[in-house]
Automatic annotation (TrEMBL):
PROSITE patterns named among the record's database cross-references: GNAT
Pfam family, one: Acetyltransf_10
Protein name: GNAT family N-acetyltransferase
Gene3D superfamilies: 3.40.630.30
Superkingdom of this protein's organism: Bacteria
Ranges of residues in domain N-acetyltransferase: 1-137
Length: 137
């Protein structure tokens, strides 16, 4: 398995990967931007997408951006292939950029909050709309 910054040759494969692994009705998908191929393309061009590949196939991907004013990295969107879920792949991928704390928003009503809790993220703050989870490994 290889984990690396996505490059422009990955664009169509990453777009397809997210289309296959992110469902519109998923309670964690709180923005239409998560489903927009142009956002994926722009993130790859800005060097803000990490991919995990096995034999050239994308099995995990996430989009992130560094918050210059807050000294944090925001995890914006991620997906892991069904066969690689439950194996700690996202954590392995996050460690490649974890020079600052990584934060992620999750709607308060989403089942994905259980994932954050069980996989060792810390609940930093909560409001009516979102839980703010932090990863600092």
């Amino acid at each position: 398995m290889q984990i690396a910054l996505a490059n422009p040759t990955h664009i169509s494969e990453v777009v397809s990967f997210f289309n296959e692994n992110l469902e519109r009705n998923n309670s964690a998908v709180y923005s239409e931007e998560f489903l927009c191929p142009l956002g994926v393309k722009a993130a790859i061009r800005r060097k803000q997408m990490i991919v995990a590949t096995v034999e050239g196939q994308v099995v995990g991907a996430f989009r992130f951006y560094r918050k210059k004013t807050q000294n944090k990295i925001s995890l914006y969107q991620f997906a892991i292939s069904k066969i690689y879920r439950g194996q700690g792949l996202l954590k392995k991928m996050l460690k490649t950029i974890n020079d600052l704390p990584i934060i992620s928003l999750c709607p308060t009503y989403s089942y994905l909050n259980d994932y954050y809790y069980k996989s060792g993220w810390y609940l930093q703050e909560q409001n009516e709309e979102f839980n703010v989870w932090i990863f600092n490994d």
